[in-house]
Amino acid sequence: MPQLSDMQMVLAGLSGGVVGFTLGLIGGGGSILAVPLLLYVVGVRDPHVVIGSTALAVAVNAYLNLIPHWRQGHVRWRTAAAFALPGAIGAYAGSELGKLANGRVILFLFAILMLVIAVRMWRRKVPSEPVEKARVMSVTRVVPTGLVTGLVAGFFGIGGGFLIVPGLVFSAGLPLVEAIGTSLFSVGTFGLTTAASYALSGMVDWQIVLLYVGGGLLGGAAGVYACTRVGRNVRRLQQLFSGVLAAVACYMLYVNLQALHLV
Q: Domain boundaries in the chain?
């Protein structure tokens, strides 16, 4: 695996900071930037190494962010386990499929996924009123939902929080704040499972992981602080970020269509 230059190390730390800041400022969806930043800013050429490395970095950050939610009573551990354990099986299967697929095809599909997330973030409203009390969890809904969500997360090497949160609301009837807190256990578990699969194939750059995690911790703290300052403007920031996602996705589509000789 090629050694990073000094400039690439700096850019990797800064990229991790951007991802952490975005997550702290507007919540879910920010980690989707980890892959394009590593590809097009840091300059890592192997898509599979990018996916494996970012999966581990996202997993570590998710587990760290789980702690304050747990302390505040926002984590439903029984639901978290019922969702994450079958999801880990799906994540492993998805990661194995991802390693077999053409890297350019994965990035092309990843760009389409980014467009979907951009649209969802543009339309998503910031809740201003308490959500109704959680209903009784249905295992028959939670288990298959977790399995499918894990499969998608593993294939693309993402945490999948933007899928896990609505999945928990739908399958377990959790209030939004508890779905967000509980989702972090699955985000970490899916990312760790995916990263383990890639690491066994030598497709994780540990230096990048450390730089991303370090930058993400600093950026996340700054993002949370900024979020408390902007208050109601978070909705506008979400829409701005969705526009950035859409622009990055269009660039990725163009680059990878060219690489696949489709344009």
A: 6-123+133-259
pLDDT digits (tens, 9 = 90+) for 108-149: 888 898 888 888 778 765 444 444 444 566 788 899 999 999
Read off the DSSP letter of residue 233.
G
Q: Which residues of the chain have pLDDT under 70?
A: 1, 24-30, 124-137, 227-228, 230-235, 238, 260-263
Note whether 242 and 122 are within 8 A (CB): yes
Nearest alpha carbon to residue 60 among 203, 217, 172, 178 = 217
Residue 252: phi, psi to the nearest 5? -60, -40
Residue in 140, 137, 30, 154 with CA at minimum distance from that of residue 87: 154
- Burial class from Cβ neighbours inside 10 Å (0-12, 13-18, 19+) for residue 240 reads middle
pLDDT at 142: 92
Distance between CA atoms of residues 168 and 131, nearest Å: 14
> Rounded to an integer, what distance in angstroms lies between the CA atom of residue 37 and that of residue 123?
24
Tell me how far apart the alpha carbons of residues 95 and 216 are, in angstroms, rounded to a whole number: 23
Contact 53, 212 (CB under 8 A): yes
